[in-house]
Amino acid sequence: MMHSPADADGAGAAGDRHESGTATRPRPGGMPNILALDGYGTSRPPEVPLRYRLSSNENSYPPLHPVVEAISAAAASPNLYPPLVPFALAGRLAAVSGVDPKNVWIGAGSVAVLEQLIRGFAGPGDEVIFGWRSYEAYPIIIGAAGAVPVPVPLIGHDQDLAAMARRVGSRTRVVILCNPNNPTGTALSPVMLRTFAAGLPADCLLILDEAYREFVPAQSAFDGTELIRSHANVAVLRTFSKAHGLAGMRVGYAVSAPAIIDVLARVALPFTVGRMAIAAASASLDQHTEIQAQVRETVRERDALIQLARGLGLPVSASAANFLWLSFGSDSGAFTDRCAAASIGVRCFPLEGVRITVGSAQANAAVAGVLNEYAGVLDR
């Protein structure tokens, strides 16, 4: 090891960095407020072993056999990079969405594509509007890009599109709509979405996050790609993490105008979507009938739990996703503790509410038991 003369005297660069026995740390560069950001999930307590994990909106169904086979085959060549751009999968997604392949961009989960969109279209001083509460990654991604998060309070469980429209100004570069909204589960009507999109300035990007769209009732479902055909400033996000049950594979995509896809291609890191993820997503597209059956069963279980909660007088939202939202307010922690005592992990938002993923039949029965027990305590 080489030493400078100063090192031999016990001084030098390393010695100069110590004050009271503590070395100074590297300072995050770029954004002065980076340490003010809440890391994703930092409000959650440490995970403990629980029988039912209903805190992350994972699909409770095991992977379909053809998907497992595709993953296993792709795992045989981990020494090779995946395609820089998975054109074959993009072509299949384009066909499903009724668009040209140049309208599709694939990333390591829809949240990765969201991060690329924010980084590509919003920078220091630019404003990004979103409903709140909504997906907790939004303000983190916006703040990390140096942009200004502009949360607009919900009306009850719903995003307030009128208030969001009023908040759009000369500094607004992006608006994010989560449909259905996470964590409240409520869906925006097609009329509301069309009206909102039509009223946005052409230089403001509208990101429509449709991670849970497969679970929306048919009578109120909206396909965001409809807006792509009439608006050049709309990007629709989709994922394989929820209905397809591939959360661990990390694959999602955007459907948008070619000019927006071009920006995504320029800011994306290379080789982030692995071979196994590409293979899994492609194989899952072949299992449409089976996946739709699983979605229908999840929706049936969800609606049964909502009906139960309503019958018990509990504050449950009209969720159109694969989870329930119970706005317990200051009682959220107490209800979460009761779930933990029953070996059920749920997502607690302190002083706001509790989100519970719809799980297996056994898990949902356990949730029903806690709901009945909790309502009984409230009646005493």
**SSE string, helices as H and strands as E:** HHEEEHHEHEHEHEHEHEEHHHEHEEEH
Basic shape: globular
How are the strands of the biggest sheet laid out side by side?
4-10-9-8-7-5-6
Radius of gyration (CA) equals 23 Å
Which fold name corresponds to the CATH topology of the largest domain?
Aspartate Aminotransferase, domain 2
Largest sheet: 7 strands, mixed
Distance between the termini: 73 Å
Would you identify the regions where 5 or more consecutive residues have pLDDT less than 50?
1-21
Per CATH, which architecture of the largest domain?
Answer: 3-Layer(aba) Sandwich
Tell me the domain tally. Answer: 2
- CATH homologous group name of the largest domain: Type I PLP-dependent aspartate aminotransferase-like (Major domain)
Query: SS-based structural class?
Result: alpha/beta
SS field, number of helical segments: 14
How much of the sequence lies in strands comes to: 15-25%
Overall residue-averaged pLDDT value: 91
Helix content: 25-40%
Give the number of DSSP strands. Answer: 14
Give the CATH class of the largest domain: Alpha Beta
